[in-house]
Amino acid sequence: MDHSTSMSTHLKHHPCCYTLDRRAVGPFQDQFPTWEQFFIPHGPEHWTMDLLTANTLQLRAAGVPAAQIDTASICTACHKHDLYSHRAEGPEAGRGMALVALTSCARAQ
Ligand SMILES: [Zn+2]
What is the rounded average pLDDT of the residues 13-27? Predict the structure, then answer.
């Protein structure tokens, strides 16, 4: 597969930034049999979510080689003075944007 991906800044699985309760984790438990690979227990009925691992596992399952997955290792909640974080700042936080582009396109003959 000739794809590369970049994952932007995101919430890290810091207990101070992204702890979820069973109500939030339940849909992931229902949808992903491997949910324990990207949820780290953090107290009774609470977990921190490792978004990077969750997204990387999905990309790898789709056939994207690990060497072609690039990530930004900045937590939006920890860097809310530079980035927007709905989780850290609430609904009044600004919004981020992403730009996606194809740099080449192979056409079926
Ligand atoms: Zn953080």
Answer: 90
CA of 96 to the centre of ligand 1 (A): 17
Measured distance CA(43)–CA(78) in Å, rounded: 21
| Tens-place pLDDT, residues 54-74 | 989 988 998 889 999 988 888
Q: Tell me the DSSP string of 8-59.
A: --B----TTT-EEEHHHHHHHHHH-TTGGGSEEE-STTEEEE-HHHHHHHHH
All residues with CB under 5 Å from ion ligand 1: 12, 14, 17, 75, 77-78
Pairing of strands 19-21, 39-41: unpaired
Q: From CA 90, how far away is CA 59, in angstroms rounded?
A: 29
Query: Which tens digits make up the pLDDT trace of 95-107?
Result: 988 887 777 766 5
